[in-house]
């Protein structure tokens, strides 16, 4: 599992450093060209809510792959991370408004990860032991791991979208 985590981190760093190359791929240019016609590309509320929904859908896809497919962790790393970065690059390239509004759009869209982090802490705070003397240490480890992944995903999302 540690090897998969390290491979995912290295893979993410490689994709982030090659972000401009990804933005110049023909399919990304075609998608951004078509999306720039919509008012979403200049309204930070519409773009932020769309990004929020996209992040929620990507999270749901990763959740389904992780828990319902054999070897889901490997499939998730190989598919969901590039798909997320691809989506965030498209949002970065589609934006036509000011830099200040782009920051607002990014915070609105990445708020999904803050809501998820809040749910994680609420779930842990209201967790009851299954039986007297039950140790909740493993639940605490799960909270720490989920927090790291949520903060990491939010940071990478903001970095990719706000990078010039």
From TrEMBL:
It comes from the Bacteria. The keyword Membrane applies. The chain crosses the membrane at residues 6-28, 49-69, 75-95, 107-125, 137-162. Keywords: Membrane, Transmembrane, Transmembrane helix. This is Membrane protein YGL010W. It comes from Fictibacillus halophilus.
